Amino acid sequence: MESRIMKIFRLVIMAAAFIILAVFLVLHAGAGLETQMSKIYLGLYIILMGWAGVRVFSLAKELLKK
Q1: Rounded alpha-carbon distances, angstroms, from residue 48 to 4, 5, 13, 22, 39
Q2: Which one of 22, 27, 59, 64 has the fewest CB atoms closer than 10 angstroms to its CB?
Q3: For residues 42 and 24, is the Cβ–Cβ distance under 8 A?
Q4: Residue 45 CA to chain centroid, in angstroms?
Q5: Burial of 14: CB neighbours in 10 Å, binned 0-12, 13-18, 19+
Q6: What integer pLDDT is reported at residue 22 of this predicted model?
Q7: Helices marked H in the chain — which ranges?
Q8: Distance (Å, rounded) from C-alpha 7 to C-alpha 60?
Q9: What is the crossing angle of helices 36-65 and 4-31, to 10°?
């Protein structure tokens, strides 16, 4: 059984990852998307933000349920 403190810690880490990825996404898009690799990185940022968002949502839901 996982402790509530560890769940809160994971929630904070995932929320920070989501915010950091959003900042990287904006900076990367602002720098320009001239190359194909830039577009791939942009897509990867979006996928990782989706994953972090789902984790934040599921952890918050789990914490509020108990």
Answers
A1: 25, 24, 14, 10, 14
A2: 64
A3: no
A4: 9
A5: buried
A6: 95
A7: 4-31, 36-65
A8: 9
A9: 160
**pTM listed for this prediction:** 0.83
How far apart, in whole angstroms, are the C-alpha atoms of residue 61 and residue 21?
A: 22
37-65 confidence digits (pLDDT tens): 888 989 999 999 999 999 999 999 999 98
Give the mean pLDDT of 1-7. 83
Query: Which tokens is 52 given?
Result: 């972090």
Per-residue model confidence as pLDDT tens digits over 28-40? 888 888 889 888 9
Where do we find the tokens 């898009």? 29
Q: Compute the distance between CA of residue 26 and CA of residue 41 in angstroms, rounded to an integer.
A: 12
